UniProtKB/TrEMBL annotation, chain A:
Cellular component terms (Gene Ontology): plasma membrane
SUPFAM superfamilies: MetI-like
Protein name: ABC transporter permease
Transmembrane segments: 12-31, 74-98, 105-126, 138-155, 184-202, 239-260
Pfam families the record matches: BPD_transp_1
Compartments where located: Cell membrane
Source species of the chain: Oceanobacillus sojae
Automatic annotation (TrEMBL), chain B:
SMART domains per UniProt: AAA (SM00382)
Keyword Transferase tagged: no
The protein's name in its UniProt record: Sugar ABC transporter ATP-binding protein
PROSITE patterns, alphabetized: ABC_TRANSPORTER_1, ABC_TRANSPORTER_2
Pfam families xref list: ABC_tran, TOBE_2
Gene3D superfamilies, A to Z: 2.40.50.100, Nucleic acid-binding proteins (2.40.50.140), P-loop containing nucleotide triphosphate hydrolases (3.40.50.300)
Organism name: Oceanobacillus sojae
Listed PANTHER family: MALTODEXTRIN IMPORT ATP-BINDING PROTEIN MSMX (PTHR43875), TREHALOSE IMPORT ATP-BINDING PROTEIN SUGC (PTHR43875:SF15)
Taxonomic superkingdom: Bacteria
Length: 274, 378
């Protein structure tokens, strides 16, 4: 028992250190966003600002249509996430429960796309979006992101864990595929869909390279592009304002995570397939 | 006509033929058990009836209609799976009612059926529980309830009791009987447990290696086994199958022999073969410590306690014979005389391993008459 207690304490210490390492920059950024610029340079190690000020936020709201930019980011992340989830769910369902010719090859090709670096598809995608006249438009950012092989892979894995007999019982009761999906498969893969969804949302929310290629005017920017404006060589580096953008960039995913957290834990504990 | 008919049905997976040329009929309202060791194709047959498995060739008829291409949902079939297949996210009530709701059955009728089945299977008080909050026996009853409320003509059960302990099995079997008496569905039931089979079945289909070995009543399967496999598979310990030489009424085992009675002698002589295997069940052997004319001598190898009886393993001229004895007063190495009960012996053709049949007028001590036909495929 004694040894166990000690081992436990060591683990706790490791966890605390890990959490500190991860959370410190975030707290530092929040602190910085409330400091005047000279303070940021002079009292670098002070996490809590000595002369707390809102001036960074005021500058930010004065120079950028930040509500509009947040809205753009939200649209891109939400639409891409929803579509990725829908396409992934439907494709996974087909891969698990339908048998059709070329299924294995198709799946192999699909999984293969995961290993193609973004930089390879970047230029062809850009040309397509450009030809479609969707440059400098959030929908141009969204369009190539409506389906995702990783999502199909993860949701398929989760579906494969559902005992086939559940689907067979439903088939014996003459249920349509739509009904089986909605009433049986969807509730049982909900934990997977939720976690994949959050991951999709956050990765799209934070995306930088692709939007920077497509979006030109500030009006159409997403938050990571706005952030970049304050640390570019042209605009002069204004760390404290950049930190204010960071804080705003953080807020929505954080709210989302906190509000879903209970739900995620809930679905994980209540799923218990067997 | 709630009948199921197999006509030359085959099922092939890749290169392996899991069901070979199957021909039999499940009669309306009967309880038919598909019995056999694992991998014999019995579950595949059940799944073909359910429409969950395609039929490679041949025809399957249900209600007189060819159903090879009819989807599962249109076959009027309910099925209970070995793992019960309860929807884990639905309560007992939702599990039982779900299909009825989807089929848009009147609400009052759904409630009526639900109440009825809840009472019958003693599930009251559990309506709002999730499957994971139930014991194995309760889950099994929920699965049974869900299959019952559909009021299907055909009721398929895939090893429904194999996850229950011995006592629960007995009560679950009674419940199944009750359901069958009440609704009279045609039941096809898969099991590898012969006790389950003989206690529940009207008729048993015995499968081995994808081939039908025998289809008949439990009594006939036990007393009139169609072939060596059937004789060995049914009964525990299995039937003794001995290599013998037959010579005009004398059955020779090694250097010893015993004489058949007149009825058997005439019968075997008339079949004209003498390449035979001799079969006798352990429970149909009389053991005697003193020399007996109707028997052969052997040595006791060891004794096995079977609970109600003792299994005595005996070496007779290099062949092993198991006999049941109420006494355990046998010592290893002791000489013992093995006397088969003449009314209960079997002969099989050495080449085909098929039963050669039974003479007319065999006097049965239990007063039951068995069919004397040689049944392999019906």
């Amino acid at each position: 028992m004694k040894i166990n207690r000690r081992v436990e304490n060591v683990w706790h210490l490791i966890f605390i250190i890990t959490i500190l390492i991860m959370i410190l920059p975030v707290i530092y950024a929040i602190g910085m966003s409330f400091k005047p610029l000279h303070d940021a340079y002079n009292n670098v190690l002070n996490i809590i600002p000595i002369h707390a000020t809102l001036e960074n936020y005021i500058t930010l709201f004065d120079t950028l249509p930040i509500f509009r930019i947040t809205w753009n980011t939200f649209i891109v992340a939400t639409v891409a996430t929803i579509f990725k989830l829908i396409t992934a769910f439907l494709a996974a369902y087909a891969f698990v429960y339908f048998s059709f010719k070329g299924k294995e090859i198709l799946y192999f090709l699909l999984i293969g796309t995961i290993f193609i670096p973004f930089t390879v598809t970047m230029i062809p995608n850009y040309l397509i979006i450009s030809n479609l006249g969707m440059l400098d438009n959030v929908w141009g950012v969204i369009l190539p992101q409506l389906a995702d092989a990783v999502g199909i892979f993860l949701i398929r894995q989760s579906m494969k864990n559902i005992p086939l007999s559940l689907i067979e019982v439903a088939r014996l009761d003459n249920m349509s595929h739509g009904r089986i999906m909605k009433d049986i498969v969807l509730p049982l893969v909900r934990p997977a869909i939720t976690s994949v969804g959050i991951w999709f949302f956050i990765s799209t929310w934070n995306e930088f390279v692709w939007p920077v290629l497509i979006l030109k005017t500030t009006e159409n920017f997403t938050l990571p592009l706005a952030l970049q404006m304050f640390i570019s060589s042209e605009g002069g580096t204004n760390f404290t304002v950049a930190m204010a953008v960071s804080v705003i960039t953080m807020i929505i995913p954080l709210i989302l995570y906190l509000s879903f957290q209970k739900y995620i834990i809930g679905t994980f504990t209540s799923s218990g397939i067997k | 006509m709630k009948e199921i008919k197999f006509e030359n049905v085959r099922k092939v997976y890749g290169d392996t033929e899991v069901v070979k040329d199957l021909n039999f009929t499940v009669r309306e309202g009967e309880r038919l058990i598909l019995l056999g060791p694992s991998g014999c194709g019995k579950s595949t047959i059940l799944r073909m009836i359910a429409g969950l498995e395609e039929i490679t060739s041949g025809n399957l008829y249900m209600n007189g209609q060819r159903v090879n291409d009819t989807p599962s949902g249109k076959r009027n079939v309910s099925m209970v799976f070995q793992n019960y297949a309860l929807y884990p996210h639905m309560t007992v009530k939702q599990n039982i009612m779900y299909a009825l709701k989807v089929k848009k059955i009147e609400k009052k009728e759904i409630e009526r059926r639900f109440d009825f089945v809840l009472e019958m299977l003693q599930l009251r008080g559990y309506e709002n529980r999730l499957p994971k909050q139930l014991s194995g026996g309760q889950r099994q009853r929920v699965a049974l309830a869900r299959a019952t409320v559909n009021r299907s003509d055909f009721f398929l059960l895939d090893e429904p009791l194999s996850n229950l302990d011995a006592q629960l099995r007995v009560s679950a079997r009674k419940e199944l009987m009750k359901i069958h008496e009440m609704f009279g569905q045609t039941i096809v039931y898969v099991t590898h447990d012969q006790i389950e089979a003989t206690t529940f079945a009207d008729r048993i289909v015995l499968m081995y290696n994808g081939e039908l070995q025998m289809i008949d009543t439990p009594d006939n399967v036990y007393h009139r086994p169609a072939n060596v496999f059937t004789a060995k598979f049914i009964g525990s310990p299995p039937t003794n199958i001995l290599n013998i030489e037959y010579d005009h009424g004398a059955v020779r085992i090694g250097s010893q022999s015993f004489l058949l009675n007149e009825i058997w002698k005439d019968y075997v002589n008339q079949t004209g073969t003498n390449k035979l295997l001799f079969g006798i069940r352990p429970e149909h052997i009389e053991l005697s410590p003193v020399s007996a004319q109707k028997g052969v001598r052997g040595q006791v190898k060891y004794i096995e306690n079977q609970g109600n009886n003792y299994g005595v393993y005996i070496n007779v001229e290099g062949q092993e014979i198991i006999a049941m004895s109420e006494s355990k007063n046998w010592t290893d190495g002791q000489d013992v005389y093995v006397c088969p009960v003449m009314e209960k012996i079997h002969f099989f053709d050495k080449d085909t391993e098929r039963n050669i049949g039974y003479p007319q007028g065999l006097e049965m001590k239990d007063g039951i008459t068995y069919s004397n036909e040689r049944k392999v495929n019906v």
